[in-house]
């Protein structure tokens, strides 16, 4: 009895130390927060996560939806080893799994967007023993046409600058081409004038020589 007590005490203390060294069990979720998409198109609801525990068969992913105009929360998608699509409701045949747990990706694809899809989509990931943590949220706005964002304006500005540079290069090349052509024409005219003058001098010399022979 006394011989076993020290061993149990050591194991107990070792367990406490290992528990203290184990990181806080909390899954961190990363989402784009805000998305905007055109009515009738498809969109990828991106959700990635980080976890201290290795990803295994115990991993679960739950997607839910809260309408913007209010109402109860609705089920969107569930993943546990295999994906489970909704069998009824607004998202039936409109949502598919697009994640990869090995890459810490829990994203889904939503097809054929409708205006009543406006609202908040939540992504919850549990990877035991990491089961706590904040739930990821995405505010989705379905619009008739996408508004210009800063990225669009930046792309437009870069495209315009590139087009302007191309036009400037073309103008410079054409200017140099016509300049060389003018120089070539002037040089050709100078050569023609010199040739005519030399020919005229030769004719005058011939005429003067013939006159000398006549005398």
TrEMBL record:
Source taxon at top rank: Eukaryota
InterPro entries documented for this protein: Ig-like_dom (IPR007110), Ig-like_dom_sf (IPR036179), Ig-like_fold (IPR013783), Ig_sub (IPR003599), Ig_V-set (IPR013106), MPZL2_Ig-like_dom (IPR029863), Myelin_P0-rel (IPR000920)
Membrane-protein topology: Single-pass type I membrane protein
Transmembrane segments: 151-175
PANTHER family tied to this protein: MYELIN P0 RELATED, MYELIN PROTEIN ZERO-LIKE PROTEIN 2
Protein family per UniProt: Belongs to the myelin P0 protein family.
Record keyword rRNA-binding present: no
Keywords linked to the UniProt accession: Disulfide bond, Glycoprotein, Immunoglobulin domain, Membrane, Signal, Transmembrane, Transmembrane helix
Annotated localization: Membrane
One GO term (biological process): cell-cell adhesion
One GO CC term on file: plasma membrane
Lineage summary: Eukaryota, Metazoa, Chordata, Craniata, Vertebrata
Domain Ig-like: 23-141
Signal peptide from the UniProt entry: 1-26
Coiled-coil segments: none
Pfam families: V-set
Chief location category: membrane
Gene transcribed to yield this protein: MPZL2
This protein's name: Myelin protein zero like 2
